[in-house]
C-alpha cells in the first residue's frame, strides 16, 4: 500500500498532527483534499486535545494542482473539494494550529486560513496568486482572508497576487507568531500541548460561538454567546475551574476535558 498523502499522528500529550506529504511542493490535488477531509472528520468524530497542521520543513503547501484545471465544470468540482476539505478542518472542535514553513500559496494559504492560529517560520510566505492566472481564489480565500485581515488588505493581496513575508504577515494579523525555521514544529507542538491541557469542552463551545457569530449580526452573536455561556456551566471543567478558583485562586485548575 502506498504512503498516504495526508497522515494523522496522535501523540501522548493529546495533540494530533495532520501532516501533508505530497511530494516536493505539497500541492493540494483532488486526492489530497479527499484525504484531508477524511483526516479532519476523523478528528471531529474523536477529538484530540489540539491539532497541528504541518507540511514539509521547506514548504507548507503550494496550492491546487494546476494540471487539474480546465474549464468551468472542473472548477466546480475542484472548488467543491476545497470547500468540503477546508470546512472540515475549520469544524474540528479543538484549537487547530497551522505550522507554516516556506510558501503557503493559493490553496495552501487558504488551508492556513481555515486553521485557528498560524505559527510560521521566518522563511514563510503567504499569498493568493490566483489572479496571476486570470482567476480568483476558490478555497475560501476571498472570505476567510477578509475576515482575518480586513477587506482592504484582502483586496490588495488577492487583486495583486503579491506574496507576504513572515514579518508583514505578523504585522497585519495573518500570522500569530514567527519563529526560526528549526524551532517551528516544536513551537507549534508546544503551543498545542498547552491548549490540550485546558478545558476542552469550553474550547469547543467558544470556538463554535466565535465562528458562528462572524456569520451574523452582533446582536445575533451576543444571543449565541448567552446560550453558550449557560451550556458551558454544565461541563465538569466548569465545576472544577470555579471550585479551584474559589479555593486556590486563578490558573491552578487541573481540567479533565469533560
Question: What would you note in describing this structure?
Answer:
With 258 residues, the chain is of the alpha/beta class. The chain folds into two domains: 6-196, 2-enoyl-CoA Hydratase, Chain A, domain 1; 200-248, Lyase 2-enoyl-coa Hydratase, Chain  A, domain 2, CATH 1.10.12. It has helices spanning 30-45, 72-90, 107-114, 141-149, 151-160, 166-172, 184-196, 200-213, 218-232, 236-248; strands spanning 6-10, 15-20, 27-28, 50-54, 63-64, 96-100, 103-105, 117-121, 125-127, 163-165, 177-179. A six-stranded mixed sheet has the order 1-2-4-6-8-11, sandwiched between helices. A three-stranded mixed sheet has the order 7-9-10. It has a two-stranded parallel sheet with strand order 3-5. The protein is globular and about 60 Å long. It starts with 5 loop residues before the first strand and ends in a 10-residue tail after the last helix.
List keywords for this structure.
3-stranded mixed β-sheet, 11 strands, Lyase 2-enoyl-coa Hydratase, Chain  A, domain 2, 6-stranded mixed β-sheet, 2-enoyl-CoA Hydratase, Chain A, domain 1, alpha/beta
Q: What's the total number of strands? A: 11
Q: In whole angstroms, how far apart are the ends?
A: 38 Å
**CATH level 1 name of the largest domain:** Alpha Beta
Total of DSSP H or I helical runs spanning 4+ residues: 10
- The order of strands across the largest sheet is 1-2-4-6-8-11
Helix % is 40-55%
Percent of sequence in beta strands = 15-25%
What's the helix-strand series? EEEHEEHEEHEEHHEHEHHHH
Structural class comes to: alpha/beta
Rg, alpha carbons = 19 Å
CATH H-tier superfamily of the largest domain: 2-enoyl-CoA Hydratase, Chain A, domain 1
Biggest β-sheet strands, sense, barrel: 6 strands, mixed
Model regions low in confidence, pLDDT < 50 over at least 5 residues: none
Total of domains = 2
Shape: globular
- Name the quaternary structure: single chain
- CATH architecture of the largest domain, by name, is Alpha-Beta Complex
Mean pLDDT: 93
The CATH topology of the largest domain is 2-enoyl-CoA Hydratase, Chain A, domain 1
Amino acid at each position: 500500500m502506498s504512503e498516504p498523502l495526508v497522515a494523522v499522528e496522535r501523540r501522548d500529550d493529546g495533540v494530533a498532527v495532520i501532516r501533508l506529504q505530497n511530494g516536493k511542493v505539497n500541492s493540494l490535488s483532488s486526492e489530497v483534499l479527499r484525504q484531508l477531509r477524511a483526516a479532519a472528520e476523523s478528528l471531529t468524530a474523536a477529538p484530540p486535545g489540539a491539532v497541528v497542521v504541518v507540511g514539509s520543513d521547506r514548504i507548507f503547501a503550494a496550492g491546487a494542482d494546476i494540471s487539474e484545471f480546465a474549464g468551468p465544470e472542473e472548477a466546480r468540482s475542484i472548488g467543491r473539494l476545497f470547500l468540503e476539505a477546508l470546512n472540515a478542518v475549520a469544524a474540528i472542535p479543538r484549537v487547530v494550529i497551522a505550522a507554516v514553513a516556506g510558501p503557503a500559496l493559493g490553496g495552501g494559504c487558504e488551508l492556513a486560513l481555515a486553521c485557528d492560529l498560524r505559527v510560521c517560520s521566518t522563511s514563510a510566505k503567504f499569498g493568493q496568486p490566483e489572479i496571476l492566472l486570470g482567476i480568483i481564489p476558490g478555497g475560501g480565500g476571498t472570505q476567510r482572508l477578509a475576515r482575518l485581515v480586513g477587506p482592504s488588505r484582502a483586496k490588495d493581496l488577492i487583486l495583486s497576487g503579491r506574496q507576504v513575508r513572515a514579518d508583514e504577515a505578523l504585522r497585519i494579523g495573518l500570522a500569530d507568531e514567527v519563529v526560526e525555521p528549526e524551532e517551528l514544529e516544536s513551537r507549534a507542538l508546544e503551543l498545542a500541548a498547552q491548549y490540550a491541557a485546558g478545558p476542552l469542552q469550553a474550547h469547543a463551545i467558544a470556538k463554535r460561538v466565535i465562528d458562528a457569530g462572524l456569520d451574523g449580526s452582533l446582536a445575533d452573536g451576543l444571543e449565541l454567546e448567552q446560550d453558550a455561556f449557560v451550556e458551558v456551566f454544565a461541563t465538569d471543567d466548569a465545576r472544577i475551574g470555579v471550585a479551584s478558583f474559589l479555593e486556590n485562586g486563578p490558573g491552578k485548575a487541573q481540567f479533565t476535558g469533560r
